[in-house]
Amino acid sequence: MNKLARAMKGLENALAATSFAEEGEFDTARSIMKEDRRVLLAVRRGQADRKTFRYAVNTCKRIGAHLDILYISPSGEMDPILEECLIEAKTEGIDYTLDRKCGCLKQEIIDYVNAKKGILFAVTPSSDTMDAACKGKGGRLSEAWRNLRCPLVVVADGV
After folding, report:
1. pTM higher than 0.90, yes or no?
2. CA separation for the pair 15, 29 (Å, rounded)
3. Measured CA distances, 157 to 18, 115, 123 (Å)
4. pLDDT of 137 above 70
5. 110: which of 61, 72, 120, 149 lies 20 to 30 Å off by Cα?
6. Could you say which of 3.30.450.40, 3.90.550.10, 3.40.50.620, 3.40.1360.10 is the CATH number of the domain covering 36-155?
7. Which one-letter DSSP state was computed for residue 77?
């Protein structure tokens, strides 16, 4: 979709949301406007933590965005902390999608952001092992990482 088409779609959404808001249908107006606003939370099995999750959820609440969760796990098993966080998100009314992958966290983030529209930024926990499954990718991956199409927020561990 080119820039003009995206701008036209944005204008159409804004006008539709305005019409619903004028009629008192505020929830419908909000849902139309947040259609393309997404925050990506990318975590690897064993590295999910509440601090990073809370950061992503609170940001989604503030800006009215959808939460996309990219979960990297070679075995496909769900991290117990992430399961608890998903229940919490549901009770707080946060719309989310969970996409399970295996492999290199960096490459999966890059591929996800390139494939999906409306990703405002990606959130990931701080980790020395972010490159653990990225062996052999070399300079090509590093260049792609520098050209990520959205900001990357790395939530550092507490002191």
Report:
1. no
2. 10
3. 42, 29, 13
4. no
5. 61
6. 3.40.50.620
7. P
